[in-house]
């Protein structure tokens, strides 16, 4: 494997720019230089009849291979990889089912569970390739195997989303992401039709733990970065739609790393009607937190249990349950910190000594039931209920004393590198006692009716939220014995000539107690059709959403609002020799405020806040072709958003603080490219490039950059393996983002101070070896016979040890009366060991 052989020589010996360039060209050279003999892939699953009963003796045949399902309906078929294959499922008493245009990677294990009905089914509208299923609906699909294998500090669905061109995040410790100029609160996340919510109080990525989405339970992943259908909810930016898989056999998977463990149990009853997935995960982020430039006692521990159970009552009725308990504890007792910053000619150092501690806890519970009733072969009805409960606590008392010094350059001093006399000396005291309880109840009905390529879908949802919030925060700053008052406090100071007798107040302080509940009723209807026009394939979707909600806050008047959101998608696949697909989508997307959008900087709730509105227009093109006799796809999209009734906010790390006013307007536009395919035979890799510009105009003062104005994004996902040892695999992520706005103090007027953070650069590398797998058998006398799968390896996070910053700490030079931005660096290079086993 060329990449692995060369990486060890370039890893720590060359400068950063040369390393990145070499690595990029290495990707290109390896993809064109690696050649393999014909390889195979495996398709497996369980064949069911219309009653969801496993079918034995089903004939499964491709061009040159064939097999039969066993008494449990289970089958396994080996096919030629990296070329189109058609597979036919046939059984006496049932009609044939044909799976067309299947293209699998070398050594890929693809799961397909067909249902043989009384009418032949031709699956011709989906092409399964190394880049996932292709839809005319403008949705990106990513295979579950890729989600599980790609390395990253927060390995999983969000980790791989951050490699897409329209998705960005400058915080590797956070699972939150921004899409096309939107913030973290503007993304919809569904798991099995259940909407997932994120905690309210988390302000730092290192306080986050496990994502709700469990990678080991994912069966299907779909993502839309904009222009999505009316069946999805009221958010401004994106939709992540996750479906958990249904267990078809007993299995136990265990994953252990230096960061934590994960155990997932798959079980199924003898009659195949009851199936269950149970997963227990734990994680400790000390490995990452201790790689930062602060010393102390850190105990960031996270734990969760997830359960997904399905019971098939009959061929018409299916009931499923999704449950989750998550406990996140973040304890921090900082000791010291030293950060060097500045330029080569003006190096400064910030030294901080701490006393005190921080204790944060986030407890989340989710219980959801979904009943799915097949009225007939054309009509499906669903009833979904969920109860989300979240209890959050932030308690901290931290005293920090800092000094700001200049570092000797070593030219004319006896002790080069030592700090010069003190320029700044101050003490800062931060105290917080924040408690928040949130209960969110949902009751929803969904339905769909299809006939002759036409589908009509509808839904009605009732949502009730109950928030009880107590926020008490204060920050005091003492500079050489003088308490620093907040900006524009109205007091002039001239000590020691004139005594200062004003009362002591915190530099920043919030005291508030809120009790808010919201009732929202929303519904949608949409119509879609797939047809032909002059031998061209046409798909279109027309739909609309209506939402009405009422906000009730204690000691405040209630307020009601109603919104209407029409949406549409249109796609055409011309009858050309070249395989191309064109898409156009758009509509009105509105976001009713949740609790955080109602609360302003001072903790006051404003029930009158209206929904933010965005007009979307998205144009896309998808071109599929073969290069080096392997499949590739080039996806291109251009988008434009016009936003009104905008609620301005500040962004610090992952903490969002809203103005709770609809006093701004904004826009966003950009273009994206993503080329993906088998650069190395039998693997999937991609290169993505995105450009974005988003600005806002607050109170007609003129347009300035929004906090999420991430101008340029480059992402590379590369997979490789050694031709002679195909079980030795490599996974590489490369991300480059230009700096976000937000390098100024949070209290600063953004119109007076437009400062950007430094560019974000990161590379994560994973190396693994498959000891036991679907295509690798072992001797019956070997101890490895107990494993169905066994792999082990290592990961290097932040491969080149780049110093990325997410925020700045602002300190004062008392001599020159200046403020300096001291970067808060993210994690350094970290080595992780990983082993996976399945029984």
SSE map:
Blueprint: H1 2-10, H2 16-33, E1 40-46, E2 48-49, E3 59-61, E4 66-68, E5 74-80, E6 85-91, E7 94-102, E8 109-111, E9 115-116, E10 121-123, E11 128-129, E12 132-133, E13 140-141, H3 144-149, H4 157-161, E14 167-168, E15 178-179, E16 187-191, E17 194-195, E18 218-224, E19 238-244, E20 251-257, E21 260-268, E22 274-284, H5 286-289, E23 294-312, E24 317-343, E25 346-374, E26 379-406, E27 424-451, E28 454-479, E29 482-484, E30 508-533, E31 536-553, E32 559-573, E33 579-591, H6 595-598, E34 612-627, E35 630-646, E36 649-652, E37 655-658, E38 664-677, E39 685-698, E40 703-705, E41 712-722, E42 725-737, E43 760-772, E44 789-797, E45 805-813, E46 818-825, E47 830-838
Parallel strand pairs: 1-8, 2-9, 7-10, 16-19
Antiparallel strand pairs: 1-5, 3-4, 3-6, 6-7, 11-12, 13-18, 14-15, 16-17, 18-19, 20-21, 20-47, 21-22, 22-23, 23-24, 24-25, 25-26, 26-27, 27-28, 28-29, 28-30, 30-31, 31-32, 32-33, 33-34, 34-35, 35-38, 36-37, 38-39, 39-40, 39-41, 41-42, 42-43, 43-44, 44-47, 45-46
Kindly describe this structure.
The chain is mainly beta and 839 residues long. The chain has 3 domains: 1-33, no CATH class; 40-124, Carboxypeptidase-like, regulatory domain (Immunoglobulin-like, Sandwich); 134-403 and 419-498 and 505-838, TonB-dependent receptor, beta-barrel domain (Maltoporin, Chain A, Beta Barrel), CATH 2.40.170.20. It contains 6 helices and 47 strands. Strand 6 and strand 7 form a beta hairpin. Mean pLDDT is 81; it is low at 1-38 and 119-135.
């Amino acid at each position: 494997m060329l990449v692995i052989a060369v990486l060890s020589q370039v890893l720590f010996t060359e400068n950063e720019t040369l390393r990145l360039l070499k690595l990029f060209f290495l990707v290109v050279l390896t993809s064109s230089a690696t050649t393999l003999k014909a390889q195979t892939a495996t398709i497996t699953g369980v064949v069911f009849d219309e009653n969801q009963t496993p079918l034995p003796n089903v004939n499964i045949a491709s061009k040159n291979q064939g097999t039969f399902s066993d008494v449990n309906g289970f089958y396994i078929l080996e096919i030629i990889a990296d070329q189109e294959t058609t597979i036919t499922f046939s059984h006496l008493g049932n009609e044939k089912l044909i799976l067309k245009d299947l293209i699998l990677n070398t050594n890929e294990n693809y799961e397909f569970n067909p249902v043989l009905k009384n009418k032949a089914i031709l699956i011709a509208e989906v092409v399964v390739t190394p880049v996932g299923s292709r839809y005319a609906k403008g949705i990106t699909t990513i295979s579950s195997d890729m989600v599980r294998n790609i390395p990253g500090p927060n390995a999983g669905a969000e980790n791989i989303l951050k490699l897409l061109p329209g998705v960005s995040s400058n915080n590797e410790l956070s699972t939150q992401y921004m899409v096309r100029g939107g913030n973290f609160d503007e993304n919809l996340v569904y798991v099995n039709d259940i909407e997932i919510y994120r905690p309210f109080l988390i302000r730092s990525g290192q306080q986050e733990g496990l994502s709700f989405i469990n990678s080991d339970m994912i069966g299907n992943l779909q993502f839309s970065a904009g222009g999505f259908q009316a069946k999805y909810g009221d958010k401004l930016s994106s939709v992540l739609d996750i479906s958990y898989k249904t267990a078809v056999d007993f299995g136990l998977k265990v994953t252990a790393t230096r960061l934590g463990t994960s155990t997932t149990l798959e079980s199924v009853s003898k009659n195949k009607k009851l199936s269950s997935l149970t997963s227990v995960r734990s994680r400790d982020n000390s490995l990452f937190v201790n790689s930062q430039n602060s010393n102390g006692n850190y105990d960031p521990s996270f734990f969760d249990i997830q359960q997904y159970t399905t019971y098939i009552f009959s061929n018409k009725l299916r009931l499923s349950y999704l449950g989750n308990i998550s406990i996140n504890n973040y304890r921090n007792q900082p000791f010291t910190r030293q950060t060097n910053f500045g330029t080569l000619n003006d190096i400064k150092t910030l030294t901080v000594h701490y006393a005190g501690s921080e204790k944060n806890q986030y407890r989340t519970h989710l219980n959801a039931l979904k009943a799915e009733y097949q009225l007939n072969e054309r009509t499906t009805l669903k009833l979904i209920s969920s109860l989300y409960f979240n209890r959050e606590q932030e308690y901290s008392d931290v005293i920090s004393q800092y000094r700001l010094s200049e570092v000797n350059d070593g030219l004319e001093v006896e002790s080069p590198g030592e700090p010069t006399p003190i320029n700044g000396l101050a003490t800062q005291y931060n105290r917080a006692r924040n408690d928040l309880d949130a209960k969110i109840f949902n009751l929803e009905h969904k339905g769909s009716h299809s006939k002759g390529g036409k589908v009509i879908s509808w839904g009605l949802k009732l949502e009730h939220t109950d928030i009880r919030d107590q926020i008490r925060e204060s920050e005091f700053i003492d500079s050489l014995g003088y308490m620093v008052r907040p900006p524009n406090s109205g007091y002039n100071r001239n000590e020691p000539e004139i005594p200062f007798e004003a009362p002591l107040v915190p530099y920043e302080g919030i005291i508030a107690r809120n009790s808010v509940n919201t009732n929202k009723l929303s519904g949608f209807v949409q119509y879609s059709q797939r047809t032909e026009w002059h031998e061209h394939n046409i798909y279109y979707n027309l739909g609309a959403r209506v939402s009405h909600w009422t906000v009730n806050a204690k000691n405040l008047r209630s307020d009601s609002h109603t919104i209407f959101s029409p949406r549409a998608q249109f796609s055409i696949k011309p009858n050309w020799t070249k395989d191309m697909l064109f898409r156009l989508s758009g509509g009105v997307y509105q976001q009713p405020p949740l609790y955080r959008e109602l609360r302003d900087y001072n903790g006051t709730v404003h029930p009158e806040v209206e929904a933010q509105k965005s007009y979307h227009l998205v144009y896309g093109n998808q071109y599929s072709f073969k290069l080096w006799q392997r499949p590739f796809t080039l996806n291109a999209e251009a988008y434009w958003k016009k936003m009104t009734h905008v609620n301005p906010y500040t962004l610090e790390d992952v903490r969002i603080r809203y103005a709770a006013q609809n006093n701004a307007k904004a826009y966003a536009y950009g273009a994206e490219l993503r080329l993906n395919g088998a650069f190395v035979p039998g693997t999937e890799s991609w290169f993505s490039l995105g450009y974005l510009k988003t600005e806002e105009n607050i109170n007609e003062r003129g347009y300035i950059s929004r906090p999420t104005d991430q101008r340029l994004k480059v992402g590379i996902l590369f997979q490789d393996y050694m031709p002679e040892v195909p079980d030795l695999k490599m996974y590489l992520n490369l991300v480059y983002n230009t700096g976000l706005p937000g390098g100024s103090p949070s209290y600063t007027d953004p119109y007076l101070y437009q400062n950007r953070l430094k560019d974000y650069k990161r590379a994560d590398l994973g190396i693994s070896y498959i000891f036991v797998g679907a295509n690798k058998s072992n001797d019956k006398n070997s101890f490895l016979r107990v494993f169905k799968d066994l792999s082990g390896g290592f990961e290097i996070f932040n491969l080149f040890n780049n110093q990325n910053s997410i925020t700045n700490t602002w300190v004062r030079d008392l001599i020159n009366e200046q403020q300096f931005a001291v970067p808060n660096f993210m994690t350094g290079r970290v080595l992780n060991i990983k082993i996976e086993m399945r029984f």
